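Worked example 2:
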Amino acid sequence: MVASTLSPTKPRISSYNIPPEKLGQRAADLAEMTGLRIEDLFPDAPGPIKADSPEGIRKEIRELTIKELKKTDLSKIQPGDSVNILTSHHGFSIYGGEAYAEMIRTIRDEVERQCQTKDIRLLAGVGLRFRETEEYIRRFELDKYFNGKAAGITPVDEGIPIETEIGVLFGIKRAYSAKWIIHAHNNDVRELHYHRQLGRLFKPFAMSYATIETRSAFHQSMGPRSANFLARMIYESKFVQEKFVCSVILQVAPTGVIGVDANNDLVEQDKLFARLNLKWYGKIVTLLSHIKDVILIIDYPGPIPYTTAGGILFGNFLNANVDEFNLNVPFTPFTRYTDMLYPSEGPLHNGKLPPPNPAIKALIVNYSSKGYPGTFFAQQLPTLVVGAQADLLRGCEQNTTFMDYALEVPDLTKALGFSKRFAQTDHILAFDGAIGGFNVSEPLANQLRKLAPSITEQVDQELMYTWLTQRNLKEEKTRSDV
């Protein structure tokens, strides 16, 4: 790896990825690349926890989680009561997953210590890749830590009807099998196109803890700005409120993991994090929106839209040419995922699939997971797939024709050289899991450094006022410990 670049996420052993030994050169190894840290662009960005080793991360997260839970009311839970700690698969992928896993371990230990019960289970929700959370449970040895009471739950598991103010919605029966539930989640901005910082922390109640019928209503019936309405209705139902104890949120920012926050009131907590996320991520997304031409390299062990760097996903960059935080922006640009996934179900854009960010001149898929619909990326963007990754996509049940629209290239260096010739740009951005910043080409780094001061001024003096006012958050105070 080039000395000046940031470390990419390590390869993952998974049924959804190529074996690590088949992965060749990483984007960070390319001679063109350099590391660009968030703190150098935006000095006011929140600093991450100081630990730089797995052991240090676990120690600091444990201390922070204990501190938060001591301030949280767990008195509902009586000795011997059953408790389900509900989690989501994305949390295990954030910045390596160790911080999320340790937060969950600590919740278990504190509930046992404070409430004098040992009947504590871990249920991990998942999306389309049904074996994914089981893999995370084994990787972090959570099955052993929970004494065999840790399991993945899927949208096709047995459901349970939940009466809400808008009718019956369906949760996963096993998620609610205990007397009490604790919601263990995170605040990053993945799927910004759906939540737009409106009910971000509620989402798992309509997704990770819900059956396919409810998930389908979320994706296909509601759409951006309203999808999390379903999740909130489930959360506020009598059934859930009679079981809900608290939520514990892993605090993340573009700079990395920055803390833990616990609260008995998820409505209050969601408002706090909406305000903070607008500021933390608003500058990064706004900065990326000024990129006019770029070659993107996907180099991360996750599905193509969920590949990440600097806290931002490729899925966020797909829409970066519009301000997704601004609720007054017309609806159409935000239906991209829905229309791409289900083009016959929604309105098309001038008779065609909604176009992705026009700044993307080429897409190189060097390393990613299968198991998520993504053929539309290759249909709309000049796409090159490197080495063994091509065979993985050919065998992907969700993308049987992906390689019909993409070009297979033997190695990353050739893929980049070819892309630079036809894309006519030397701007390169890698979504490779780099923590605290991005791996980019030097010309792009120079451009972003020059833009950063004006972006700070624009967000602080103009955009934050708009974003906060639209959400009735303008006058609300932020808890000092968040």
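Confidence is low (pLDDT under 50) at residues 338-345, 476-482. Residues 279 and 464 are 7 Å apart (CA to CA).
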